[in-house]
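# step 3/5: fold
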Amino acid sequence: MQFAYVKDNLPKNWSLMIMDSSKNRRIFYQDEIKSPHYCQTQVTIHPVIMYYNNRNTLVRDSLIFLTDDIVHDYHTIQLFLKLASHHLSKQIKTTREVIWFEGCQSQYKGRGTFADLSLSSKSRELNYFGAEYIEGEGDREIAVVNKAVDQAILGRKVVINSAQELWQWCSDNLATDTACSKRRFVYVAPTEIQRDRPLTEIATVKGWRGFHQLQVAGPYKLLTRRLSCFCPSCLIGQEQTCFNAEHTGRNFQQKCLQLRRKHQTVTDVLQIVKTEDCAPSKLSAVQALLFLRVHRVCVLHYVNHKIFGHWRILRNKCKFSQSTCTSFVCAVINKQIIAIS
């Protein structure tokens, strides 16, 4: 209901995005011999359906990602989302990205997805349908592709051996570009998907299955609500007067995300800043702090975390002018700094 409402009342410069996984497509041939029949190659097909207003017309823009990588995880979804957002930025200037996922944990509703969201732009928000798997618009896109490709293969019009060959055939035969409906195909090489991202490996978030609307509050901080709502009040950011407050819980609740302990080490940070000693403070040597560096001033925010065994190692490493913090090594993330004391 909320999805349909926001789709029909999509504000100007807002975009609506639906991401839905599907069953891998198997590679088969019309004149198939025994060995490929018993050792079938698979291709991942992942549609992303986008809606946005262009010249007072609601445009349905479909991106279908094809890759030989068949590991369905949040790393793959993050890359697809990044490419979809880049494509969207070429179509319109968006001020808000409203993304809808199904509730599948490994791809859409898990710790890694929450970490990626917290490290992204504040213009992005995630919403979840009630079921873990849904039959939605993405399934209709996949049905169109599979039927057309099957007919071409059985009619001996094409032989497809890989995701790249599938992408080429679909781009030549199934892509559309009209004023209100578009369909494009994107090939993603397996080497483009990066899975060595320790800063997205966070501890389990308590009650995460009950979150259905999430917004960005800052690095490793999310605003969560029990149910999604896009009533007239919520569309303009006035959740206090939400029409469905008795169901949604009215205001958003802030949740802090914490990195898993095995990744809270100096070698796992992305960018290390090393300088001289700082003036000591009353802060404990085993606290993790979040620092925001603005005009050479450190503003401290507690993360309620403890990291042991680094104090002596990290002495004489860092300095920020006009600060009173203890010695630390830090990683820069989106102009903010995660520091380990």
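# step 4/5: annotate
The first strand starts at residue 14 and ends at 19.
# step 5/5: archive (pending)
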